[in-house]
Design goal:
binds pyridoxal-5'-phosphate, 244 residues, alpha/beta, TIM Barrel, globular, eight-stranded parallel sheet
């Protein structure tokens, strides 16, 4: 299967070009509700994070006007610049991209959430640099469930130790796990990764970590992610259109 064919297959009907952000959001909310109800869950159990990376501040304004509050950014400086342009709106910003040591201060001072935490050293810096006047940073640990070689994320083997260490840090609240499955040939393979992530999530709760957030599912796989227990889908393309 060629890559082009696979992209068309994965994104095909989901993303009509040039439809307004408000319409796209409405369609995505319907998809979430349908997936939740089919899985015997309620739509309110699944939070929608609108991924606005590479999109202009104006697109975020349009989404806000359509009722969207939570936005995700991958590139930290880009996110912080956008926040400044949108400081008049009461938005909730989530960092979902890799964090280098030299960017922890920017993250600690500007974001409400981090989904992409995978190292204790970064966690310790974020906690120490979180300003005292802000609520604790809400964090998910990114876990590399399928062992994708060039991907971030803590291995399932090291997850418990990291979770226990992060849970003890001040100015930080451990909320859950995040995962990004490798693009798979079929839905069953993607679904198996989501299923494993849910099992890891449950196993941490079984030892008392009290997690409530399982961040998984993007434009192409939000339905299966919700069927497997996602509580937060991170959707970019289906809301804002294609990024290239
Ligand atoms: C870009 C990105 C998304 C959104 O992906 P889409 O396929 O555009 O919905 C979600 N999560 C992460 C971590 C991303 O980098």
């Amino acid at each position: 299967m060629s890559l082009n064919f696979r992209c068309a297959q994965r994104f095909g009907n989901l993303v009509p070009m040039n439809t307004p952000v408000s319409e796209n959001l409405q369609r995505v909310r319907q998809q979430i509700e349908l997936a939740a109800v089919s899985a015997g869950r309620v739509a309110e159990a699944v939070k929608l994070l609108a991924v606005s990376k590479t999109m202009p501040a104006q697109a975020v304004r349009e989404a806000y006007a359509a009722g969207q509050i939570a936005f995700g950014e991958n590139y930290i400086q880009e996110g912080v610049d956008k926040m400044a342009e949108l400081a008049d709106l009461p938005l909730e910003w989530h960092c979902i991209g890799p964090i280098q040591s030299n960017k922890t201060k920017l993250v600690a001072e500007n974001f409400a959430w981090v989904h992409s935490l995978d190292r204790l050293k970064i966690a310790e810096r974020l906690s120490a640099q979180r300003p005292a006047h802000l609520p604790p940073l809400q964090v998910c640990l990114q876990v590399n469930v399928d062992g994708g070689a060039n991907k971030s994320g803590v291995s399932p083997h090291d997850l418990l130790a990291l979770a226990q260490a992060v849970a003890k840090l001040p100015q930080m609240k451990l909320r859950g796990l995040m995962t990004i499955p490798e693009p798979a040939e079929n839905e069953a393979a993607t679904r198996a990764v989501h299923h494993q992530a849910k099992e890891l999530f449950d196993s941490l709760n079984a030892v008392g970590l009290n997690l409530d957030t399982l961040s998984m599912g993007m434009t192409a796989d939000l339905g299966v992610a919700i069927a497997e227990g996602s509580t937060c889908v991170r959707v970019g393309t289906a809301i804002f259109g294609s990024r290239h």
